[in-house]
Amino acid sequence: MKRRAFIQKAIPAVLATGFLASCRKEESGAPAIVTQPHIEWRLASSFPRSLDTLYGAAEVFCKRLAEMTENRFRIRPYPAGELVPGLQVLDAVQQGTVHVGQTAGYYYTGKHPALAFETTVPFGLTMRQQIAWLTQAGGLGLIGEVLSDFNIIPFYAGGTGAQMGGWFRREVNDLKTLKGLKMRIPALGGEIMSQMGVNVQLLAGSDVYMALERDAIDATEWVGPYDDEKLGFYKVAKNYYYPGWWEPGASLSLYVNQKAWQQLPSSYQAAFNAANAEAALYMLSKYDEQNPAALTRLLAHGVNLRRFPDDLMAEAERHAVAIMEERAAKEASYAKVYAQWKKFRAESFQWFDIAEQSYQAFAFRQRS
Amino acid sequence: MKRRAFIQKAIPAVLATGFLASCRKEESGAPAIVTQPHIEWRLASSFPRSLDTLYGAAEVFCKRLAEMTENRFRIRPYPAGELVPGLQVLDAVQQGTVHVGQTAGYYYTGKHPALAFETTVPFGLTMRQQIAWLTQAGGLGLIGEVLSDFNIIPFYAGGTGAQMGGWFRREVNDLKTLKGLKMRIPALGGEIMSQMGVNVQLLAGSDVYMALERDAIDATEWVGPYDDEKLGFYKVAKNYYYPGWWEPGASLSLYVNQKAWQQLPSSYQAAFNAANAEAALYMLSKYDEQNPAALTRLLAHGVNLRRFPDDLMAEAERHAVAIMEERAAKEASYAKVYAQWKKFRAESFQWFDIAEQSYQAFAFRQRS
Asked: Of A67, A244, A288, which is closest to B132 when you measure between CB atoms?
């Protein structure tokens, strides 16, 4: 009875069997006993379930983390709107309402304009260049400095690749065609389009299809073939323009509350990083697998692929550069990120123009 | 004394403190007690330490895995030659001499020609397409079928991106220039070069520089600016050709012994997968960060960048297709992988030629 009483005091009943079993194994040389806290976090995403490659990556991330830690470190993901509105994820992480956010820096350029570089900017880096800049060339460090004012640590968390230019009811043959065109296009892309005469419309994602169908807008951009197909734009606008020069390599981020992060054991920080890397790899490769098949289906629906005219893109790039230079002249903390990014872009464009670009230009052309 | 005797029997002394401490915490609601075995594995790489982005990724992988599991699951990496020769990694994993290998499938086309698709084939997929094919479009499943005969499970483990065409002492202006040219180039690329009249040389990596310097060979291929610069080829051959159409998206693999894998707890399998994903992301982004700066330095050394003539590449592609079609006609298990891969390539080339390629063609051109 004495022994039994001791066991019950020292070992919660539910754990006793496991403990004794593990000790027996330990004596024969196999498993060890370790202590790791149970932690449960919440993740708020800026994306709805319907964007299943974006939101799906958050689910992959949470699932892997739980598997790795045998459910001791669990993060529960919530799509946009369930805990907080999609565009208030930064605020929720900053305030500690949630521990993690899956979002994109360029939603928060109102808080700091340099956060655009974290995601993508018009005529900016391609996807692989963006990943290299963020994770290896100091990009995340610079963005982290900006976000430390918000008690947030950023992580690269996957991307979409180059996006499409969107759906146009009528053809866009030159700059003149843009004048007065009613287009739904957010952020810097919208700012540039507006400077080129476009009547830029701000619409929630859920309202875009109906607006296009009812002629309330003439054009809209979205993501790429896989996501665009689901919204059915091809039914009401047959001209599918490319490239989406305003989002050449859009990358997403996980934002983590600084205090929450510091309270994690280092093994959980490592697990977080690795699970996030796996989800990031998943997101981009899933897009790269799904987009080709979706494009084939869209073409079968009679969609016309059209390339933006060179003079339109050249004009757009002039506006993009002017906007960035102007901001850099005004704000030192923006200028710091911009200068480092610009140097990286120049060298990276030089290299990728050689082996990658010349191979693709040749190989893809042989196909047609 | 009775209590003490019980504790010593049930709990190895070294663990007792930790256990009791954790029980106390458990009663107040914090950490749980879990059992996870101590496992130590060995990894043999096909690459030397000097290829520090390739071999470095194996080190990153092992480090992350140890961090995540608090050193309970440790894998020790060994560079090529320390445990087994670089090109015998498959055999070592198959026989269980090592648990894991970091290698490339195309080293083992003598065992099964379809293993070329696991890494890269001439005029094959670009890096992102290769990753998508392997991890999302069933590629690793098909390769896994081939490798199950060798008791091996394959994992995608990072890549180099499109490689360069290599270093030539004299210019290659047309197909005629290739006749009799002594070039060090292995694998399928060598087979095609040989069919185009090149005198293909097989040399170990360590002998290539001296052979080029002493005019024993006229040309050699290696990897890309970052790795090539370290070997100093620019000192003895000034013409740096692109693209390396024989390795447009070279990807590496981890090979795991099937029995060893099955003995892992599922949480360790998950940790393995995630640590590997992080290392894979590291490898490619490290190359994408290092190559641009290395190219700038090579140009400062007076290196001449030269593009392979179109007719040479078109002829090479005809040979590549003929070789693959011929093998498919001979061998059903090769034909199965080839057919699925070919369909994926066609659709993937169609999509990447639109948004990605048109953006890059425009953006990179603006630079110059």
From this structure: A288
Name the average pLDDT for chain A.
Answer: 91
- Choose among B37, B292, B307: nearest Cβ to A351: B292
Q: What is the pLDDT of residues A221-275, one digit of tens each?
A: 999 999 999 999 999 999 999 999 999 999 999 999 999 999 999 999 999 999 9
**How long a stretch of residues is chain A?**
368
User: Which candidate in A40, A353, A367 is best for mutational testing of the B interface (most B CBs within 10 A)?
Assistant: A353
Model pLDDT for residues B64-119, shown as the tens digit of each residue: 999 999 999 999 999 999 999 999 999 999 999 999 999 999 999 999 999 999 99
Query: What does the pLDDT read at residue A367?
Result: 56
Beta strand B31-37 with B39-45 is unpaired
**Bridge partner residues of A200 (DSSP):** A183
> Using a CB-CB distance cutoff of 8 angstroms, which residues of chain A are in contact with residue B293?
347
- Contact yes or no for B245 and A363 at CB 8 A: yes
Rounded CA separation B65/B276 (Å): 8
Gap between the Cα atoms of A272 and B14, Å rounded: 29
To the nearest 10 degrees (0 to 180), the angle between helices B54-68 and B266-300 is: 150
The number of helices, as runs of H, and strands, as runs of E, in chain B is: 16, 12
* Amino acid symbol at B314: A
Q: Which two tokens stand for residue B207?
A: 């002998």
Give contacts of A 125-144 with B, CB under 8 A: 126-129, 131-133, 135-137
d(C-alpha A120, C-alpha A183), whole Å: 20
